[in-house]
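If it is no trouble, can you show me the amino acids of a protein and the tokens describing how it folds?
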Amino acid sequence: MNSWRVLGALAALAAAAALLIVAALFQILVVSDPSVVPPSSLPTVERDLDLILGDGVLRVSLAPDEINYYVRQGRIEGLGYEMARSFANRLNVELEIVVPETHARSLRDLGEGLADLVAFSSPGARPILTDVAWSEGFEIAHPVVVGRKAGAIGGIEDLRDRVVAVRRQSMLEERARAWREQLAGRLRVVGLSSDLSDQQIALLAASMEQPLVLLDHRRARLEAAVYETLELSAPLGPALPFRWALRPSSTQLREELKRWMDEEIHTGRLSVLQQSYFENPLRLKSRRRPTFRSGGPILSPYDALFQREAVRFGLDWRLLTALAFAESGYDRWEISSQGAMGLLQIMPVIARKFGALDPFDPAQNVAAGAAQLNWLYELLDEVPEPDRLRFTLAAYNMGLGHLQDARALAAMRGFNPDRWDEGVARVLPLMEDPAIAEQLLHGQARGSVTLTYVNHVTELFEQFAGENNSRNVESTLSNPEDPEEAPTSVAPTTAHP
């Protein structure tokens, strides 16, 4: 009997030791990985719609991404950002962007109360947390594999004995593991860091570091337009929803979010916004284009056009060059989320007004953009120099109506409406406040963006003028360069937003 007791005690000790080993492994492999968040580790935070409205601030976590959220030449853009801004405007509160340290961190920020919503512009994270709720799907996308020879893959059976890489802790990873079970283990699934962006994942396939990667079909089409060696498989299985994450306790916020999303879908506004980001591969391609920086006497591939139109309107051609660099990075195919086009990012109404039948034609675009700039400059003749130029650039960026609102707001606040630093620049950020925007004739405006834009263009202009102050414009006009041919003396460099 004693021997049985001893054996039982030894077995209990062995079981306890095994549990300790498993717990230690869990601590090392799971808890130490910031992308894996045990549900019990997140605190309970109570912050529903009533508190958001009381504070006047909606906090939205937006992971930086070329589709979701990014800052480009002083302007904030992105599908997730524009949707979040629209929802905040509906609530009549300020939008506070919370940028997570990593993609995986965004859900932890939600649980810790740093964010009220997590906005995804893709199928998003895998719902592994018990303390995270999800909005209803507002869009769907089919899983596809992407690679040099992915076009031959027509179904899940074609993945047998293949290797597919996918971002960890994602809905797509969950789908890939289901395929592996369906194929009786004859599919190898490689987990990629949850911090990798879609661009980085596509680049793994383009560089053949991974034979196949898994993306949603909307993003995959854009990446294939950039990396032209890539092919897409046929859609693989049911579609996945695009959803936003929020706390389960935020029931009021979830109901209001649903009403807003239903309205955006019903009116077609969401579809138009999504098309501007997902249905325009050239737009994403231009984000990664090679561009030109000033060097020697040549500032851009289009110097001759800028010089010709500058002489026509009595402008400094280096101002037009700086404007084009800030607006498009000298990309004639650039299209903004607002519909501005070409080198000088002219809107369709401006193209029609100044006769640019093809806004993507550099000559027509520069002619219309220069005419618009000159028209604004002439209208602002009551503003003394050097502030007149800054006022003109502000009107070019935000529209004349919004600039006049800024001047009126400056006067109301006791500042000089005809001065920049001492007047209008001080009130531009205030135009983003919904309460203040109600007092403005033309409504809310992204004043901080315009302020950054004006500073950026003027700094470029001063830089270009300083590096090019000895050049004779007339000598260039007598022998214009082909604007479509990049000068060999200008070294291409990758543009960064």
The longest strand covers residues 162-167.
